[in-house]
Amino acid sequence: LRSLVGSEMCIRDSDVTAETIAKAYYETGLPITQIMELYQISRSTVHRRLNEAAAKGLHPRNYRRNMPPTA
């Protein structure tokens, strides 16, 4: 796993949307550490994106309520 620092981390972090992180965390149940590795982003970015998702109504309760029913 390549390590990113400084401006590289900021550039990389900007490519990952709040919706993507919310799906990884709420829908698939990935732990934050695995999300960090998968998207090569910092822990603070994961939390920032989850907060953005919550502000958009993608909080776990709202997120699951808006998901189509599973078979």
Characterization of the model:
The protein has 71 residues and is an all-alpha fold. The chain has five helices and no strands. Helix 2 packs across helix 4. It starts with 5 loop residues before the first helix and ends in a 5-residue tail after the last helix. The model has no long low-confidence stretch (mean pLDDT 76).
Number of beta strands:
0
Task: Give the ordered list of helices and strands.
Answer: HHHHH
Q: How helical, in percent, are the residues?
A: 55-70%
Distance between the termini: 37 Å
Structural class of the helices, strands and pairings? mainly alpha
Overall outline: globular
What's the pLDDT, averaged over the residues? 76
Major β-sheet annotation: none
Number of helices: 5
Q: Approximately what portion of the residues adopt beta-strand conformation?
A: under 5%
